[in-house]
Amino acid sequence: PAALPLAPLGFTDVNLNSRNTYEVSRRRSAPEHLPHGGTAPAEPAPPPQEPAERARHRVGIAGAGSSFAEFFTRNFFTKRTKELKPAVQSAPGWKLFGKVPPRENLPKDSKIIQQEYEARTGRMYKPPPPSARRKNIEFEPLSTTALILEDRPANLPAKSVEEALRHRQEYDEMVAEAKKREIKEAHKRKKIMRERFKQEENIASAMVIWVNEILPNWEGMRATRRVRELWWQGLPPSVRGKVWSLAVGNELNITPELYEIFLSRAKERWKSFSETNSENDIEDAGASVADREASLELIKLDISRTFPSLYIFQKGGPYHDLLHSVLGAYTCYRPDVGYVQGMSFIAAVLILNLEEADAFIAFANLLNKPCQLAFFRVDHSMMLKYFAAFEVFFEENLPKLFLHFKSYSLTPDIYLIDWIFTLYSKSLPLDLACRVWDVFCRDGEEFLFRTGLGILRLYEDILLQMDFIHIAQFLTKLPEDITSEKLFSCIAAIQMQNSNKKWAQVFASLMKDNKEGDKNHSPAPKT
Amino acid sequence: RSFSFKVVLLGEGCVGKTSLVLRYCENKFNDKHITTLQASFLTKKLNIGGKRVNLAIWDTAGQERFHALGPIYYRDSNGAILVYDITDEDSFQKVKNWVKELRKMLGNEICLCIVGNKIDLEKERHVSVQEAEMYAESVGAKHYHTSAKQNKGIEELFLDLCKRMIETAQVDERARGNGSSQSGIARRGVQIIDDEPQVQSSGGCCSSG
């Protein structure tokens, strides 16, 4: 069997098909359609008998190439994400970049074209149901094929020979131009697809390694160099929750049963809360109860404000109750911490990756880490120490930007609070945030601050041009097109070493300094 | 000539601070916006009687737990907008707490606005208009009613605040010209060029660090 390289073959296929369909279209627009089909592309509305798609081609070509390109891209990506499988089965030979077995692809002959043609003409008289139409969009020719040079209608005076010749020439140029563009775009798309396939393959092979080798020998392998490197690449989504759970651990020894107990307590409280609410306020309930009730109310409000664009945590969404349960159970489990805004994002990310009870266990243990406790208790003096440690590495890694920030008295609390509270899940695109979580689970709190420095490094040039308010604005609302490759290469370039001291040592020495300096340090005002 | 002012929004969670600023700066209203944790920052340029004004608006988190972080956000503010929800008596009490704290920390130079938001829910009002207005007057603040949802009263609120901040800045400047200024005042009117190092403000927990 001739093992043809898949890439060039697929590409030829595109051209081949487009030309063939082009011929078909030409045939279709031959004499019997002349009375109405032979008009110039600029004609406002197509005659009603014509299939809408054809009309669209003409408008697309005559009007703007971009609209057609958009249309095509949209169609292309829908197919990729949703119809990958059915497309392979249903489209003999007409494949753009899908993995079509070469053998099926090669004998693409006039017979198939004929079938295709018949299928199309058959639809001309009764418009197909919307679903069938959509399917057929896959057979759409590229724009070159839809550009048709028609003779002038018979009721108008004929063109002169020179004019006809010139038009012919212009037409050829346009087609050649469009074809060139299409070839370029096809190349680009194919490259993207190749990268995606490669990525998917990497994930698939990584998944096998995680499932078969690493997870069964977790304790022995988690710290090995090979596993750490694989970990850095990002965890395959199918093992992500499992690895997070293992890495976060369960120091608190929470069991699913314990979760159920706290959940039922939370449910009782919600019930009594709504009852007292209807009876109106009871004054002697005391401030702590009022606070707790406010906290319960706040959970409700915050749930609807957690990843609002996903529409899965909002009321009526599939994970609304789950998120409510996990957060409610936590406030009963840890009344000393209670619900703090920002927690809903952490719980939401865990729920997206773990079963309910496991999500709760990971949530409670995660929030029990020193850094998270300091932030969620809003222990301001501890937070300042974390910021101070961050600034040590900031100055070390990005001295120019550090000075720039200093000149505006722009302190880390302006941008770090959001990042640390939600572990970047509010600030970065969700998939990227999950990758940050992956390595956070591997490296601990230091990685949160390293990520922050990575972000600053990624945008260093832009930030150096900005003043205080624009930096603050930029960092609290990061660009949405931030990619994981770029960010992770910037994070990788951040050295968490300061004159041979690592994060933990720098932080420890700051703690010691501050203890000594506490005597002449006035406490934070409380109101 | 131009002025740059910093305005901070404070108030309990879910009274509509973010909605108010989003309506003002971007003319948007959305029921489903995201929780504010730390401050978020918006800017707006105005022209008031030939004077250019650059506003930097700091929108803050509302949860009581974050109260301790307040000084980070309100230090050096020229104006503060203290928002409550007219259907929620508690949120009005929180405004009173903020007024006390701001007066204590920033003195009388900061222009205070007390804003009863959500007047589209007038039927569910729990805070009396008279009480709110009387309170505002007693603490030297101005009182406003707004609806971010229906876009009522917001332009007026910010315009009025800007005019007051310009006045305060000009008074400051004159006082400064007379040589009787204090560093604490001079620092705030940003249009005045700092000729002394940024002395840490008169209070606030981050001041001594």
TrEMBL record, chain A:
Q: Where is the composition biased (Basic and acidic residues)?
A: 24-35
Its GO biological process annotations read: vesicle-mediated transport
InterPro entries this protein is in? Rab-GAP-TBC_dom, Rab-GAP_TBC_sf, Rab_GAP_TBC_domain
Tell me which GO cellular component terms the UniProt record holds.
cytoplasmic vesicle; vacuole
Residue runs in coiled coils: 161-196
A molecular function (GO) term:
small GTPase binding
What top-level branch of life does the organism fall under?
Eukaryota
User: Which Gene3D superfamilies does the entry mention?
Assistant: putative rabgap domain of human tbc1 domain family member 14 like domains (1.10.8.270), Ypt/Rab-GAP domain of gyp1p, domain 1 (1.10.10.750), Ypt/Rab-GAP domain of gyp1p, domain 3 (1.10.472.80)
Q: What is this protein called?
A: TBC12 protein
Organism (species): Sylvia borin (Garden warbler)
Q: What is the lineage of its organism?
A: Eukaryota, Metazoa, Chordata, Craniata, Vertebrata
Record gene name: Tbc1d12
Automatic annotation (TrEMBL), chain B:
Name a single GO biological process: Rab protein signal transduction
One Pfam family linked to the record? Ras
Q: What is its main location?
A: other
Q: Give me the ranges of the annotated region Disordered.
A: 173-209
Q: Which CDD domains match?
A: Rab21
- Give compartment(s): Cleavage furrow; Endoplasmic reticulum membrane
- Top-level taxon of the source organism: Eukaryota
Q: How does it sit in the membrane?
A: Lipid-anchor
By sequence similarity, the record places it as follows: Belongs to the small GTPase superfamily. Rab family.
Entry protein name? Ras-related protein Rab-21
Q: Which organism is it from?
A: Sylvia borin
The gene for this chain is Rab21
